[in-house]
Amino acid sequence: MTMHDKRLAKSHDDILEAMADALDIPPSKFEEAKNRYEAIGNWLDRPESTLADYDPAISPQGSFLLGTVTRPLTDAEEYDVDLGCRLNASKAEFTQKGLKEAVGYEVALYAKAHGMAKPDERRRCWTLNYAAGAQFHMDIVPALPDAQRYKTKLLEHGYRSLAYDTALTGQAIAITDNTLPHYNQQTEDWPQSNPLGYAAWFRSRMRVRLTEAKRAFAQRERITASVEDIPDYKVKTPLQRSIQLLKRHRDCMFADDCEHKPISIIITTLAAHAYNEEPTISAALQSILTGMDRYIEDRGGVAWVANPVNPAENFADKWAEEPKKRDNFRRWVDQARQDFAFYLRVSTFDKVPEVLREHLGAKLVDSTLAAILPVAAVALATPAIARDISDSGDMGRAERAVEQINRDGPQSKPWAKS
User: Which domain holds residue 46?
Assistant: First the structure.
């Protein structure tokens, strides 16, 4: 590629966009994963399948559904593709154990038919491992429809308006957990989940920018499809890009302590709350990092990151028994504020401070700069500018800005009971 072929960066946002794009799963890899899980769905629904009468449906969950997938930190790691396998059946027909084994039987047949290793059973799912070249595995969660019980639970906790919002609660599911005492008993008391409802809420937090991105995509690709017909995964909003960058910052910061790093669902939820439809990644990051921890509630002395589609569920439930996880989250937020503030408020766009370069990965930053900056600018971009004498005052200003953020703002409690 010659210099004239490059799309040269002109702003902080061009740099951040390019880094987030480099972090994203490559389109070819996404399509490969999509084809693989659709193939599993077709297998489960084939005429000979023991599940065919239950109309099995496979659908993505987690970061693949939300559009916030990030490339593994090393080539030795894999993409974790979360899938739900929902059967059109009732709890009168299955125990949790029975459902888990019924789905596992067909998944094992699929693996055998395709020359794959036997699936691994985990607490709530079956893990299907592909050959090393695929660089991903699939976690398949067996599930049953459970919208009515989900609604009842919300009403019991006083969340009336949410209970009757079918867009957020109508796709709730019951899932299995082999550690529960009633795992092999006929009961209505199953663990619940609502990945499609969560995705609908997440989408609502970026509705304006998502529509804009799809419209721009249609113009760029010169297609006549309506905005509604363009799949969400074809585009990215500033919220999604910001979350990808924040997750990578987290991964690098806790590369040696993965067990206690801030979990993605907490980062994603708080970021989506703090996002205010900002049109750029830089503005989104500033808004998110300024406000995200204000959505951590204090419920009777318990730190609570509420599931937005089931506020009685605490995504931070492990913090009470493992304070290190709570402390690491706070430490990570402070560090992310400082790192991104130093870049966005102090640094010129073509200079990435060494501390941010370290916490996003030197390889990612350097390759991005080399791809979209003129040669002369790359030479300016790579030094550890945070160590320069002239930067000491700037770093101090960035640190004072972080302290101001930490002091300001009462804790908000977004859940209104009605």
Answer: 27-204
This prediction's pTM: 0.88
CA distance linking residue 336 with residue 342, whole number of Å: 10
Q: What's the sign of the alpha-carbon dihedral 241, 244, 246, 249?
A: negative
Question: Can you list the residues of the chain whose pLDDT is less than 50?
Answer: 1-5, 376-392, 409-416, 418
Note whether 257 and 364 are same-domain residues.
yes
Q: Same domain, yes or no, for 338 and 401?
A: yes
Phi, psi torsion values for 229, nearest 5 degrees: -85, -10
Alpha helices in 230-381 (DSSP H): 238-253, 264-274, 281-291, 318-321, 323-341, 354-360, 362-372, 375-381
Residues paired with 142 in a beta bridge: 85
Q: Give me the pLDDT at residue 222, please.
A: 81
- Shared domain check, 406 and 260: yes
Q: How far apart are CA 307 and CA 318, in angstroms?
A: 14
Are 411 and 293 within one domain? yes
- Find the CATH number of the domain harbouring 189: 3.30.460.10
How is 318-361 classified by DSSP, letter by letter?
A: HHHH-HHHHHHHHHHHHHHHHHHHIIIIIS-TT---HHHHHHH-
How much is the pLDDT for 404? 58
Is residue 170 located within the same domain as residue 59? yes
pLDDT of residue 401: 53
Shared-domain flag, residues 188 and 335 = no
pLDDT tens-place string over residues 146-194: 999 999 999 999 999 999 999 999 999 999 999 999 999 999 999 999 9
